[in-house]
Amino acid sequence: MTAGFTLEPLRHRDARRCAELERELFPEDDPWRERAFLSELDQGHHYLAARDEQGELIGYAGLAVAGRAPDFEASVQTIAVSAHWQGRGVGKALLRALLERADQFRAPVFLEVRTDNATAIALYRAHGFEQLGLRRRYYQPSGADAYTMGRPIQDRQESTL
């Protein structure tokens, strides 16, 4: 338990609530549907749920790891936190848990983030990510741009953020 919430593996039964949060948080873009979450889980990607003290899903995050040793790469697929819980450490805890997983594979980590999401960009930079490029009109249908960001391989002893 951390500040009124816990992290645990995301379950298939959470997919509907994830899709609801997507519609609430990302209405201008193409929010993921329930089927997208189910597909990610079925593919074996690493997804986490953040739950409040009553067990309600308040956030989620996902990481895909691709490749073979020693050349793994990881990609943050999504991080989302209910508006009510934003600014309370949920996103940070989810990101750190994803990064711990990537570090188990000794994998660099990549992600995309809206260029106008200063809070997320600051969080990623604080955890060792650097801007690598710009994807114009990446998010649809809004046409918002995205930065591609990356974090190099971390030795497990060094990753003490």
UniProtKB/TrEMBL annotation:
Q: Which residues form the N-acetyltransferase domain?
A: 5-154
Q: Which Pfam families match?
A: Acetyltransf_1 (PF00583)
The UniProt keyword set, sorted, is: Acyltransferase, Transferase
Q: Which top-level group of life is the source organism from?
A: Bacteria
What Gene3D superfamilies has UniProt attached to this entry? 3.40.630.30
- InterPro entries assigned to the protein according to its UniProt record, in alphabetical order: AcTrfase_RimI/Ard1, Acyl_CoA_acyltransferase, GNAT_dom, MshD_Acetyltransferase
EC code: 2.3.1.267
Q: Spell out the CDD domains in the cross-references.
A: NAT_SF
GO MF annotations in UniProt: protein-N-terminal-alanine acetyltransferase activity
Q: What is this protein called?
A: Ribosomal-protein-alanine N-acetyltransferase
Annotated source species: Kutzneria viridogrisea
